[in-house]
Amino acid sequence: MGTRVSKRVTAVAVAVAGVLALTACSSPTTTSTGAGDGGTLVVATAGEPDALNPVLNYGVDGGSLIFDGLVARDARNELVPALARELPTVSADGRTITAKLREGVLFHDGSPFTAQDVVFTYQAVLDPKVDSTLRSDLDMLASVTAPDPSTVVFTLKYAYAPFPQRLALGIVPAKALTGQDINKAEFNRKPVGTGPYRVTSWTPGDRLVLAANDGYWGGRPANGGVVVAFVADDNVRAQRTRAGEFDAAELAPKLAVGFDGQAGYRVQRVPTADYRGVMLPMGNPVTADLAVRQALNAAVDRAAMVTGLLGGAGEPAFGPVPPTSEFAEPSIVGKPAADPAAATAALDAAGWKPGPDGIRVRDGRQAAFALMYPATDSLRKELALAVTADAKKVGIKITPEGLTWDAITPRMKSDALVMGYGTPYDPDFVSYKLFGSAFAGQGFFNPGGYRSPVVDRALQEGRASADPAARKAAYATFQKQLATDMPWVFLTYLQHTYVVKDGLAGVTPRVEPHEHDVANSLWWNIHTWTRKS
Amino acid sequence: MTTPAPTAAPAPAESTPRRRSRRLAGAGAVVRRRLLVAVPILAATSAGMFALGAASPIDPAQQYAGAAAFTTTEENLAQIRANWGVDDPLPVQYLRWVGNLLQGDLGWSTSRHEPVTSVLAARAGWTLLLVGAALALVLVASLLLGTLAAYRRGGWFDRALRATAYAVQSMPVFWIGLAAIALFALTLGWLPAGGLTDITATGTDPADVARHLILPVGVLAVAQLPWFVLFIRDAVADSLRDDHVLAARARGLPGRTVLFGHALRTALLPFLTLVGTHLPELIGGAVLVETVFSLPGLGAVTVQAALGSDFPLLAATTLATTVVVLAANLGTDLAYAAADPRVRLDD
Question: Comparing C-alpha atoms, which of A264, A306, A203, A97 is closest to residue B114?
Answer without folding.
Answer: A203
